[in-house]
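FORM 7B: Structural annotation worksheet

SECTION A. Query
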Amino acid sequence: MKQSKLIEIFNSLTKKEKRDLGKFVRSPYFNQREDVIKLYDYLNRYSTDNESLNKESAFHFIYPTAVYSEKQIRYVMSFLFQAVRAFLAIDELEKDPIHFQSLVARSLRKRNTDRAFQMEWKVAKNQLDKQKTRNQDYHYKKYFLKYQQFLASKNQSRSAIPGLQGLSDELTHFFIADTLRQSCLALSYQTITQVDFRQNMLPYVIEYVEQNDFSNIPAVLIYFYGYKLLSGEEPLKNFKTLSNHIVKDGHCFPSNELKDIYLLALNFCIRKVNEGITSFKREAFELYKKGLEQEVFIENNQLSRFTYKNIVAIALGLGEFNWVENFIESFTPFLKKKYRHSAYCFNLALYHFKKEEYGKAMELLQQVGTDDVLNNLNARRMLLRIYYDLDEMDALESLLGSFQTYIYRKKELGYHRDLYLNLIRFTRKLLQLNFRDKEKVTALKKELDNKEKIAEKAWLLEKLNQSPK
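SECTION B. Predicted structure
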């Protein structure tokens, strides 16, 4: 029972959704079985209790005097599962009032109640016109409404059918925008999975957009330039154009979709920075600032600790110390409570580290939680640099030993394992190096240059170019 789809879905519901589901299964229109209501009550009480949750106890809760039947409990679980599915579908529909209203209009059109249809159709159209969103979903809904109007007109008169061009235009806008959006998604995944995606219509879509005017269709323009950027075509030009459209037309997209658009542009910036084009740090910083203003990085009143850290790192790389200090204090409350204190201490330590206020940085690093592996790794690499710069060689040797032990104990580090083990190895080589031996210095530089997976590579090269302590 614990592994069933019913339990998985039930435990995914919020407290409010569980209460609403209780009302739903008690409604005779949706459910007329008393045993389904009792199973709901049982799950509402025990679904997260691993010791009490099992089919036998659920059966006896529902049927106190009956002999246990595996078949019967499976039946009632299936009935409740179907009720949950219906509840989720209706809940989704109620969250989309325009789609809800459009379906009302479609139902009335099917019933040939022309006057009622026209009234409900106008309500749906007004709702759609008033919303700010102008993404591909907007064009689909507009097409859907125009299609209902077309069908109603066709039933009234076969000689003149108005709105046919508008119907075709909205379908075209939806198809092009969604094709380009899916293409951006495919290109983003290709960089990770190295899997090719076949998109047969894409060349025709690109050619059509290039030959026609879509200046008033943000859903097409944003993804068109996003695709151009990801495909590597005139990257600097297309990045600037995409950035301008994000600023100009960002309000036309729902927050979750706008976040993906921002990340598309930001990931491009980060790749360019990694390629050594440091001017893109400023571009990324400006995008992050604009995104924060539009609250696209805040979901369910929470900011990802990874986004929080990336913003701090980019801003500190530009020397935006006052801005960073204000950002840390203002946005820490939006971090998930589990990671909040640790992330705050780490990023504030990074702020003081960049200002070479090593004492304050070390105090804060001592408060970084051990359960956050990535922050723990980054805290140790920061301490490594501090000890080296302060010439605290005994502390550094001790840290290198404990750092290596920590990495070996953590089996889930993935590519981070090689990054940090190489950092430790090359730091030890740096400590043992005779800087007066120019041949050995040159050999170590060459070895370091040729090594790909290594954390703090630029710092190690910088230290090799300095006189020994």
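SECTION C. Observations
Residues 132 and 252 are 6 Å apart (CA to CA). The radius of gyration is 30 Å.

SECTION D. Sign-off
Analyst initials: ____
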